[in-house]
């Protein structure tokens, strides 16, 4: 019995320490208190809404989010804009549709069922507009980076003057959290860049936190449902395990053998 | 196998059973005499059956929504994660289920190594198990390719390229495997087909594995032959069923923790980047359960010999019943073997660790030493140990040490409980 517990804990430690070892060789990331971590972690609704504002006003001019639809903005567990708000957001974008009965493509205001409008028509166009670098799609960006949210959060605040021994080409910037320290994206945030509707002070730190929270949700839109179900599932399993343990003891008491 | 004379009570049951003896089979399975001293290491067989069924059920569901096409695979996985009802749950169970499956199979294999379960008369069970393990690795590898992320693509490229090490026909075989001149859509569709097929092959082999087990019956921690049925055995139902059930629930708690609270911790972040043949990831690493073999592969400087070493590391297990010359099964009564056993466990863990690290400098040196030791263990230490080792006296039956019948048995029992 004891050995089984020991074994499981040892294995979990080995596995988790092993997968963290990749991140460990890099610099220490900035930390902040993410509301979505932990057993009951939930998104901060207001932060998600502000994060969407940062994304759409700042990031969206270069970074696509091709797996998200406008309807997602009104779904439970997300920014939870009202349906009216989400419809208005969708309608503020021009969507290419068609062909119509004349065989022509046309534009119309966006609908809830539309995917987020892409900033560029294709990868080549995106590269051409960004000096050859492709701004990655942001839908699952948080999960596609070893450091996850902490990495994105730090990167957004990691722009510095390059040390004197580092020479930078044109259009390349120094960021202390970027792999190799060289990044093709200019510092995207500056204090007061957006004006939050709820009066929150739009510091770089605040905007980084909000937009990273938004990116976490876009990568894991069912995170809240997962945490809620996980807690119930594990409590259920623990209760069942205890019951089965006592039944087992009872059944095995019929034979002269320990269990 | 004492139930040939079983006869159902009802007339209808008799009529059916005379034509298809399913009821006899069910009776055999419930009455199956099992050693009563099995410890919790023996519960992993049942856990593995659960893992296989879980993978098949979740896999079938995923296959209903997944699109095996190089342009759509990644997107279809995101579709499952976002828009399919509970798709995130099914996919996370399937992805983490693979890791849980391997966790359980490694415990199962190392239990067998400790208690000598592979020895006569259980060689066929063991070899069937090794074939299952090989098929599991193939299924897991191909499954990891299906989401068509960066690690999928580059992992597939690295592993299929291993075949190019075969002299003369190597390059041709690789082109044939790919269905083209690089990993691309034809590779993905065939991997999907095979990934779908292999679990059912495994299922068939599991039936044979259990069938072969039911001929001699279970080995046990004392490692002696026992009379069946006797005072040393209990019927499979309810005794082993409830015990396996209890252990399975404990296992499921760990499983649930990963699925609900750390679903991506065992995967690689790069696999959330869509496959791009033009960009090679900084480190190409396989899933954790293949790392020891990856370390062996990379520790040999020559490509062909590296592949041979990696394959030998697995296939050597198939001849283990003949490499281990000791007549005593359980390590409980083999003081020297027990120490070498634990050194092997540490050696494999070290191989796993260096497999995840870049193959250079100190890591490469450690990998080489650990690889050499791995083969030394099976090819030299085990055969020699059987002749040289002074084993402890083995009890005559399971009940004997419990009742304290012989002076040496107290010591033996003491050792046994330490392992538990």
Highlighted features:
heterodimer; A: 259 residues; mainly alpha; two-stranded antiparallel sheet; B: 420 residues; 64% helix; globular
Rg of chain A from C-alpha positions?
24 Å
Tell me the Rg of chain B in angstroms: 24 Å
Q: What's the helix count of chain B?
A: 17
* Helix residue percentage of chain A: 40-55%
Order of helices and strands of chain A: HHHEEHHEEHH
Q: In this structure, how is the largest beta sheet of chain B organized?
A: 2 strands, antiparallel
Query: What are the low-pLDDT stretches of chain B, counting only 5+ consecutive residues below 50?
Result: 402-407
Mean pLDDT of chain A: 91
- Gap between N and C termini of chain B: 29 Å
Tally of helical segments of chain A: 7
Structure description:
The complex is a heterodimer of chains A (259) and B (420). Chain A is mainly α and 259 residues long. Chain A has helices spanning 2-24, 45-57, 83-91, 123-129, 148-156, 204-219, 223-252, and strands at 94-97, 106-109, 173-174, 182-183. In chain A, strand 3 (173-174) and strand 4 (182-183) form a beta hairpin. In chain A, helix 2 (45-57) crosses helix 6 (204-219) and helix 5 packs antiparallel against helix 6 (204-219). Chain A is globular. Mean pLDDT of chain A is 91; it is low at 20-24. With 420 residues, chain B is mainly alpha-helical. Chain B has a two-stranded antiparallel sheet. The longest helix of chain B has 30 residues, at 185-214. The chains are: A mainly alpha (259), B mainly alpha (420). Chains A and B meet through helix 1 and helix 7 of A and helix 4, helix 5, helix 10 and helix 14 of B.
């Amino acid at each position: 019995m004891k050995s089984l517990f020991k074994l499981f804990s040892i294995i979990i430690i080995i596995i988790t320490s092993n997968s963290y070892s990749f991140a460990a060789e890099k610099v220490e990331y900035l930390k902040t208190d993410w509301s979505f971590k932990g057993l009951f972690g939930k998104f901060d609704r207001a932060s998600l809404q502000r994060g969407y504002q940062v994304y759409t006003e700042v990031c969206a001019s270069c970074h696509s989010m091709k797996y998200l639809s406008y309807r997602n903005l009104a779904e439970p567990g997300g920014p939870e804009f009202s349906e009216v708000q989400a419809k208005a957001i969708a309608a503020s974008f021009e969507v290419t549709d068609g062909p119509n009965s004349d065989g022509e493509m046309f534009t119309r205001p966006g609908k809830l069922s539309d995917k987020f409008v892409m900033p560029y028509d294709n990868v080549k166009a995106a590269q051409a507009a960004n000096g050859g670098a492709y701004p990655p799609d942001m839908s699952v960006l948080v999960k596609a980076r070893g450091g996850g949210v902490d990495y994105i959060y730090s990167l957004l605040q990691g722009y510095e003057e390059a040390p004197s021994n580092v020479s930078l080409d044109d259009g390349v910037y120094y960021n202390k959290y970027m792999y190799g320290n060289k990044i093709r994206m200019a510092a995207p945030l500056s204090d007061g860049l957006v004006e939050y509707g709820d009066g929150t002070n739009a510091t770089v730190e605040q905007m980084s936190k909000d937009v990273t929270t938004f990116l976490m949700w876009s990568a894991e839109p069912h995170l809240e449902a997962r945490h809620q179900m996980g807690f119930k599932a594990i409590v259920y399993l623990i209760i069942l395990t205890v019951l089965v343990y006592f039944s087992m003891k009872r059944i095995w008491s019929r034979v002269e053998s320990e269990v | 196998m004492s139930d040939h004379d079983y006869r159902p009570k009802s007339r209808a049951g008799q009529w059916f059973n005379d034509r298809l003896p399913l009821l006899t089979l069910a009776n055999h399975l419930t009455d199956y005499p099992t050693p009563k001293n099995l410890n919790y290491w023996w519960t992993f067989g049942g856990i593995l059956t659960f893992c296989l069924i879980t993978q098949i059920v979740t896999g079938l569901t995923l296959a209903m929504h997944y699109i095996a096409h190089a342009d759509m695979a990644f997107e279809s996985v995101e579709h499952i994660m976002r828009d399919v009802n509970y798709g995130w749950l099914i996919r996370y169970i399937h992805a983490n289920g693979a890791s849980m499956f391997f966790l359980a199979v490694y415990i199962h294999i190392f239990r067998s190594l400790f208690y000598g379960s592979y020895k006569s008369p259980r060689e066929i069970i063991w070899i069937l198990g090794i074939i299952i393990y090989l098929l599991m690795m193939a299924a897991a590898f191909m499954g990891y390719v299906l989401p068509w992320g960066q690690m999928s693509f580059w992992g597939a490229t690295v592993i299929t390229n291993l075949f190019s090490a075969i002299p003369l026909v190597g390059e041709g075989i690789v082109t044939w495997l790919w269905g083209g001149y690089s990993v691309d859509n034809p590779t993905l569709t065939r991997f999907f087909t095979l990934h779908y097929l292999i679990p059912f092959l495994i299922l068939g082999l599991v039936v044979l594995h259990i069938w072969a087990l039911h001929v001699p019956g279970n080995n046990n921690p004392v490692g002696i032959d026992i009379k069946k049925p006797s005072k040393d055995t209990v019927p499979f139902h309810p005794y082993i069923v409830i015990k396996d059930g209890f252990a399975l629930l404990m296992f499921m708690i760990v499983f649930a923790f990963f699925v609900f609270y750390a679903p991506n911790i065992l995967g690689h972040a790069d696999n959330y980047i869509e496959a791009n043949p033009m960009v090679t990831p900084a480190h190409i690493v396989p899933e954790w359960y293949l790392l020891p073999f990856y370390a062996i592969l990379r520790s040999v400087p020559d490509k062909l010999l590296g592949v041979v070493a990696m394959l030998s590391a697995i296939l050597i297990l198939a001849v283990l019943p003949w490499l281990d010359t000791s007549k005593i099964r359980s390590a409980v009564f083999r003081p020297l073997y027990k120490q070498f056993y634990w050194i092997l466990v540490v050696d494999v863990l070290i191989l796993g660790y260096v497999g995840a690290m870049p193959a250079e400098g100190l890591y490469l040196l450690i990998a080489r030493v650990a690889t050499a030791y791995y083969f030394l263990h099976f090819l030299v230490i085990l055969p020699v140990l059987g002749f040289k080792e002074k084993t402890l006296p083995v009890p005559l039956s399971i009940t004997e040490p419990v009742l304290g019948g012989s002076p040496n048995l107290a010591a033996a029992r003491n050792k046994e409980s330490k392992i538990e």
